[in-house]
TrEMBL record:
Residues 528-561 are annotated as: Disordered. InterPro entries: FAD/NAD-bd_sf, HpyO/CreE_NAD-binding, L-asp_N-monooxygenase_NS-form. It comes from the Bacteria. The lineage of its organism: Bacteria, Bacillati, Actinomycetota, Actinomycetes, Kitasatosporales. This is FAD-dependent urate hydroxylase HpyO/Asp monooxygenase CreE-like FAD/NAD(P)-binding domain-containing protein.
Length: 585
């Protein structure tokens, strides 16, 4: 009897799992045959987000040399390393290029084809271009995966959910705003993947309020400017006349930090140091819930500081007032943040060389501008300073902090759902836009096509319009007949529009405090509300409390998603192998 594995979601995460199945199969699976079913309405490899059929104006936010789908020796996993080319090696382009998403989609499709080709001859792959509706079946028996438009289910010995970013129903605030827009003939675009949003209702020359200053906003900015016929001549934007006027703000009120524009040289900080496996083990062994702000953040801050100062003291000792040996010893002994700040102040004379995570996170905190125009000038100066610093290797401790963030993320995955603030902070510091995008933002600001609202942006629906204000510019507000929520929907189970996730929610699958699927940290098995792992159901990706920064990563950084893929693949192959052995016996 041939065994069957159903993978729901054939994007990058599903492809990564297939690659690990192929790598581990020679060791762990010698059954008589295996049918591998891929369920996804989109083409395998790229999936929805990275599909090739999208505007070439939409870029990746990583250099092509920093994008890989292949493991290396830095990944902490039991399976074998199977090396492969980065995006820039595969495409034959400059490694410092910010490739468009069409090219990344082609790379992902190629990786998928290579992963399928590497499977043993006894494994057959079947793609079902449909949506999965629900999974049924007993814990001890075969599962049934019901597909849209297919009367009979797929029978599966195991099911793995590798769902990417999905649509979600509106939360209470968004429902109220949408209802207000319908009642007053306004435009309200809720959180969505920008490439899928219908932007045609945003009229030329009309003000548009935009809430969100991250990567979704950058996509929106590109599609509503160059996408409508505008062009850049050096640092000047030449409008087409078809652009709306974008008034953008957010909680921080500033764009995500620019990608760093120089290469790493010399010794890397020896990470992890203060937040490694031992510290995570201790947190997991605690009785009661782990509080991120109280229990975890102090370790995160100390780890990032260590990365920063290791680089500063070892590469720029002339900007320090103490030997690295003395500083490291004292730094290790200090656990109170205020005492650490005192130590740093005595050892690092220039405040620009000190790591201030609070100021980095909320740069507009407490700042007030007398007029809207003064704030426009102030924020342009802030962005210009960020661009300058992030492209100046004299401030390479910033890159060390980036490496520290990757190390921290790889450790925190073991803790499960630690709240959305960490993921937002990571993206803001480590996953911001390419430098050229921020230069375009500055040009749009000077051209009057883009206006900054400020921090803690408040949206009010009143007087038949949407109105935005911010304490950054007291007394100033702007009104518009259009509001765009420039962010992806939150990946919660109970609000997901995906019928499979909703069915799991109704069935009683375990959820984290933030509404994510709870999974066994060892291998990704779904947990029920009593904490029992399901023997035949697994999940990987942003809808789980084991979510990682992404399905692919930069080379030689440990790739927590790769580690998870390997663990799930090995658990699945062992289970299938045991089934095959019992059947033969």
């Amino acid at each position: 009897m041939r065994r069957s594995l159903v993978i729901v979601g054939a994007g990058p995460r599903g492809t990564g799992l297939i690659e690990r199945i192929a790598a581990n199969a020679p060791e762990l699976y010698d059954g008589s045959g295996l049918d591998l079913h891929l369920v996804d309405p989109h083409e395998p490899g790229a999936g929805r987000i990275w599909r090739e059929a999208q505007s070439p104006l939409l870029w990746m936010n990583s250099h092509a040399e920093d994008v890989t789908m292949f493991t290396d020796e830095t990944v902490d996993m039991a399976g074998p390393v199977r090396s492969g080319p980065t995006l820039h090696e595969w495409a034959g382009i400059d490694g410092r290029t910010f490739a468009d998403r069409q090219l990344q989609g082609a790379y992902l499709r190629w990786v998928h084809e290579q992963a399928v080709a590497a499977l043993p001859p006894s494994v057959s792959v079947h793609h079902h271009p449909r949506r999965a509706l629900r999974v049924s079946g007993p814990r001890a028996g075969r599962q049934r995966v019901w597909l849209e438009g297919r009367p009979r289910p797929l029978l599966a010995d195991l099911v793995v959910l590798t769902l990417g970013h999905l649509d979600a129903e509106l939360d209470d605030e968004q429902r109220d705003l949408a209802a207000y827009a319908r009642a007053h003939g306004l435009v309200h675009l809720p959180p969505d993947f920008t490439a899928d949003s219908d932007l045609s209702a945003l009229a030329p020359g009309e003000p548009v309020l935009v809430r969100g200053f991250g990567l979704a906003f950058v996509d929106l900015m590109a599609l509503l400017t160059e996408g409508r016929g505008g062009r850049y001549e050096g640092d000047t934007y030449v409008p087409s006349g078809r652009e709306p006027v974008l008034h953008v703000g957010s909680r921080r009120g500033v764009p995500y930090h620019s990608k760093i524009g120089y290469d790493w040289t010399g010794e890397r900080p020896p990470l992890p140091r203060f937040l490694g496996p031992a510290q995570i083990d201790a947190l997991l062994a605690r009785r009661g819930a782990v509080d991120f702000r109280r229990d975890v953040w102090p370790l995160v801050a100390k780890e990032l500081g260590f990365a920063h100062y290791h680089r500063l003291f070892t590469v720029h000792p002339e900007r320090t007032a103490m030997s690295w040996t003395d500083f490291e010893e004292k730094y290790a002994a200090v656990d109170v943040a205020l005492e650490r700040e005192t130590l740093v102040a005595s050892a690092v004379p220039d405040p620009r060389d000190r790591l201030d995570l609070v100021a980095l996170d909320r740069p507009l905190e407490g700042l007030r501008y007398a007029t809207h125009e003064e704030f426009q000038e102030g924020l342009r100066a802030y962005v210009e300073a960020d661009l300058s610093r992030r492209h100046d290797s004299r401030y390479s401790p910033d890159l060390a902090v980036f490496l520290g963030l990757l190390s921290v993320y790889g450790q925190l995955v073991r803790l499960g759902d630690i709240g959305g603030r960490w993921h937002g902070f990571f993206s803001y510091l480590a996953s911001g836009p390419p430098g050229p995008r921020l230069r375009q933002l500055l040009a749009l600001s000077r051209a009057g096509v883009l206006r900054f609202v400020g921090a803690d942006m408040e949206i009010r629906a009143e007087g038949g319009v949407f109105r935005a204000s911010s304490p950054t510019v007291p007394g100033h507000s702007v009104e518009a007949r259009a509001l765009v929520e420039a962010r992806l929907p939150e990946p919660t189970v109970r609000r997901a529009l995906d019928p499979l996730l909703r069915a799991l929610h109704d069935e009683g699958v375990a959820e984290s405090p933030d509404g994510l699927l709870r999974v066994d940290r060892a291998d990704g098995r779904l947990l029920d509300r009593s904490g029992r792992p399901h023997p035949r159901r697994f999940a990987l990706g942003p809808h789980t409390d084991g979510r990682t920064p992404g399905a692919f990563t930069r080379p030689r950084t440990g790739g927590p998603a790769f580690r998870q893929n390997d663990a799930t693949a090995r658990a699945a192959l062992r289970f299938l192998g045991e089934l095959a052995g019992r059947a033969v016996a």
